[in-house]
Design brief:
Length: about 400
């Protein structure tokens, strides 16, 4: 298996060295491969099954290559576009089409061109469409998604997708009758801070399978594993893995193949963002990135978490951190002309910060790059790789 060729990207020993060399006017994404390797090893060493990287959290070619280099070989893809991105960069990767609703014809191409055999459904219409487009159900593993409104997560994932246990049981029977492999999946919610939510969802899956009278061929416990964000009390990861392992032992078939779909937990710590202060007006800082760029998720209703921040100044002695004392509260405004282009909560930064200084946002690898837009002509897309 040949290792993929890494896209060209400037490399520096530290973020400070990158600032010294580039003195950047535009925002810069700093990829941190060592942190990605550590995150990947958590799952590869301790999760009792296959780990699928949720591409939607960060589909940058640079992140995908680092995820591959860290040992991840399975990818949770939610669209034909994501499958094409992964397979063009990583032809030996295995893609799983885990979106419950697909555009017409997407499954046909995913199956016929890319050999994708894992799919999710949560209603009869999508099951019938899937079977018609693939044409050979005996090749398929069809994961019926159940809704798990359990709490414990910062962002719920049950209001849009998922069948009730009764509806899911009927779907499982139809999957089996069609000749495909009947499987179950769920999603406990994004940035889930309760390991017990996974045990509850696994118990729901068990009850659903028993009600259907169907032997499950695989169980996908979805994503939701958290990233270390400010304002969230994230439990140790071994609590999640221990809880999941114990819950799996209660299944009728404890040896069932199991998968999970971490996105945030693999990508969050693997990227920092270097921004520049363009203007200071009292306690207002105008920076070169905002809610239409890398900060969309921070502005989502109910997302009460923040990224760790640090300030760096560039002077005759090079790039040096501003002292973390005499901190003050600042509102951060983005570069667009829109008045709502302001981050929802203030950040504590050194009171000496000024135009030309840099603010580094750490742990911003998830749902930043993937949700940026080019509104007002601003589109952050400069990258560096930090080797230290």
């Amino acid at each position: 298996m040949n290792a993929p060729v890494r896209p060209a990207m400037p490399q520096f020993a530290s973020i400070e060295k990158a600032i010294e060399a580039l003195d950047p006017v535009q925002p810069v994404y700093a990829v941190l491969p060592e942190k990605i390797r550590v995150a990947a090893r958590r799952f590869l060493d301790s999760f009792p099954g296959d780990t699928l990287y949720a591409v939607k959290s960060n589909a940058s070619p640079f992140m995908l290559k680092e995820i591959w280099d860290a040992g991840i070989r399975h990818f949770d893809t939610a669209s034909l576009g994501e499958i094409e991105i992964v397979k063009s960069l990583l032809p030996d990767a295995r893609c799983h089409f885990m979106a419950p609703v697909r555009l017409p014809g997407a499954a046909k191409i995913a199956y016929g061109k890319y050999g994708v055999t894992d799919y999710v459904v949560d209603c009869d219409f999508e099951l019938e469409k899937l079977l018609a487009e693939t044409g050979n159900p005996r090749d398929l593993r069809v994961f019926v998604r159940i809704a798990t409104s359990l709490g414990g997560a910062v962002l719920e994932m049950a209001s849009k997708f998922g069948a009730s246990p009764e509806e899911a049981a009927k779907l499982l029977k139809r999957v089996q009758a069609a000749g495909a492999a009947p499987c179950l999946t769920f999603h406990v919610g994004s940035q889930c801070l309760s390991p017990f939510s996974y045990a509850q969802a696994i118990e729901m899956a068990q009850r659903t399978a028993r009600f259907a009278g169907v032997e499950l061929k695989a169980l996908d416990i979805g994503g939701g594993f958290p990233g270390p964000l400010l304002g969230n009390d994230v439990p140790p990861f071994h609590w999640y893995f221990d809880t999941i392992t114990e819950a799996l032992r209660t299944l009728d078939n404890p040896q069932i193949p199991v998968m999970c779909e971490p996105g945030r937990a693999l990508s969050t710590e693997g990227m920092s963002l270097i921004t520049r202060v363009v203007l200071r007006k009292g306690q207002r800082l105008y920076i070169n990135d905002g809610r239409y760029g890398s900060f969309d998720e921070l502005c989502q209703p109910g997302f009460l978490a923040d990224y760790p921040v640090r300030a760096i100044t560039l002077g005759k002695k090079g790039a040096t951190p501003l002292p973390q004392k005499n901190l003050d509260s600042f509102r951060l405004f983005g570069p667009s002309c829109d008045t709502i282009d302001v981050l929802p909560r203030p950040f504590l930064l050194p009171d000496t910060i000024a135009a030309g200084d840099f603010i580094v946002f750490d742990a911003i690898g998830a749902y930043s790059v993937s949700s940026r837009s080019s509104f007002n002509g601003f589109y952050p897309d400069d990258w560096v790789r930090i080797t230290g």
